[in-house]
Amino acid sequence: MTTAKFRGLLSAPLVAAAFAGSAVLPAPAAAQQKTLKFVPEADLRSLDPIWTTAYIPRNHGYMVYDTLFSVNEKFEPQPQMLEKYEKSADGLTYTFTLRDGLKFHDGQPVRSADAIASIQRWAKRDPFGQKLDEATESWTATNDKVFVLKLKRPFALTIDALSKPSSNVPFIMPERLAKTDPFQQVTDATGSGPFKFVKDEWVPGNKVVYVKNTDYVARKEPSSWASGGKVVKVDRVEWIYIPDSATAAAALNSGEVDWWQQVPPDLVPLLSKNKDIKIENTDPLGAMGIIRFNHLQVPFNNEKLRQAVLSVVNQEDYMLGIAGDPKNGKLCPSFFTCGSPMSSTVGSEVLSGKRDFEKAKALVKESGYKGEKVIVISATDQPIVHSQGLITTELLRKLGLNVELQASDWGTLITRRSSKEPVEKGGWSIFHTWWVGPDVATPATNAPMRGNGDKGWFGWSTDAKLEELRDAWFNSKSEEEQKKYAAEMQKRGWVVVPFVPTAQFIVPTAYRSNISGILISPIAFLWNVEKK
Questions:
Q1: I want to staple 342 with a disulfide (CB 3.0 to 4.6 A). Which of 19, 74, 336, 419 is the partner?
Q2: How far apart are CA 436 and CA 91, in angstroms?
Q3: Hey, CA dihedral for 448, 451, 454, 459, is it positive or negative?
């Protein structure tokens, strides 16, 4: 892969209230179990990590599903559910062999048909998968353990696509589920991964429960990111959703929970005073915040208005709003993750220079804006999202736009953002989110950089030139050529503004000192974690 260099770079009373009515008295046998209580970044609303790119369904996916390939800490693809694979000399045929002992949680064996149907469903939604699908002639099962991918033309990034580590991840589901329309949600979480989802104990807005999959056969290699041996060292995991940060901090301080995935920067000093709590950065690259426009509906279907917003964004404001401390963030005027080979400063003066309100107001006038309502949707249980939403709303007011901030929780936002309706019918104009570094590091994975309209990511940016440059990137013969086309995409991006990068940042995680084995990774994996 020509991005090989990138691989080397990746290296109290409130508590009582929070748990009131949700605690379940354990049975005597269950009392002896080791239970890890984990506070996730948001509430789990969807069980389908293919239907959405939201990270909570992705994290749920890693609990219950497995993948054909996974990447290690050097970003090298490794076989995961596979015993082996072979590539023909002409690069057109890949033969995959599943490992022995793979079983779904319902006891059924994992078959070639399950893998094929899962990859085909994933490829209809994921930007990298779509590109692989364009080059695919056929998937066929030789038998229940061996299956073959036949390409129309060589696609050098085939294994990289199948080992994609983050949203959307090519998780393997039973064929009966993988046959579901990819634009409809799967509601059955039967997988073959290291944990089993306990649907009867799922309380949306409160708790998600997983138990160790005792039938799971872990690989022998050490755990490294999503690759290697996914050895589960607890009997039960409870995701405890605590939307109020002060309550979550109190719960961790008192030992009511074991691990808080994302700690808001203003609460780090408080938790640092407790000798029984460790606070660390476990994400090697950090994440990228973004402003995402709805390109289908007025007023941001107008390029001039998107340019107006771009010209008044100050990344430092967003960085401090998200990360609090400058040491936890940095300015990144690039559409591709800073620190990765495809990042570029081409044209970045439009974002890294002085804010120009006069220019912005002139662009608003040129756009023909007539006071249409602008709805910024936000999530109060997501400090990363909400801090950006507050800053953007104030900027839009200064530009004279008729703006309204509508806040909910993250689960509601990720459902609403799929609406293509106008704002008066429940639609939206802007939402904010963030992507872990690998997700937006290259044109292959950067979903919001697509220009493929209705087939694309929420916001549905349409630009034929961006798509043409992306195709040229895929067809490049060297990393230098790839960099050239990535820079051209960036140059085009400052014109059509598919999204605005707000800052690159890290969010620390905090856990009790009796917890060990947390992996250094952009994703919070719960295997390998031990509780003493």
A1: 336
A2: 31
A3: positive
Whether 128 and 161 have beta carbons less than 8 Å apart is answered as yes
Alpha carbon distance 438, 508 (integer Å): 18
DSSP states of 299-310: TTTSHHHHHHHH
pLDDT in tens, 395-426: 999 999 999 999 999 999 999 999 999 999 99
Which of 13-17, 78-82, 126-130, 263-267 bottoms out in mean pLDDT, i.e. has the lowest?
Answer: 13-17
DSSP tag of 458: T
Asked if 430 contacts 458 with a C-beta cutoff of 8 angstroms, the reply is no
Give the residue ranges of DSSP H helices in 293-409: 303-310, 315-323, 349-352, 357-367, 383-398
Closest CA to 505 of 376, 316, 335, 343: 316
Distance CA 303, CA 496 (A): 6
CA 456 to chain centre: 15
Question: What residues contact 378, with CB distance under 8 A and at least 6 apart?
Answer: 385, 386, 389, 390, 405, 406, 407, 408, 413, 431, 432
303-310 helix and 479-496 helix, angle to the nearest 10 degrees: 100
Whether the bond between 269 and the residue before it is cis, its omega within 30 degrees of 0, is no
Torsion angle (degrees, nearest 10) of CA 36, 42, 45, 50: -90
CA atoms within 13 A on the CB side of 332: 30
State the pTM of this model.
0.89
Report CA Rg, the chain. 23
Task: Dump the DSSP string for 248-275.
Answer: HHHHHHHTS-SEES---GGGHHHHHT-T
Cα separation, 409 vs 197, in Å, equals 23
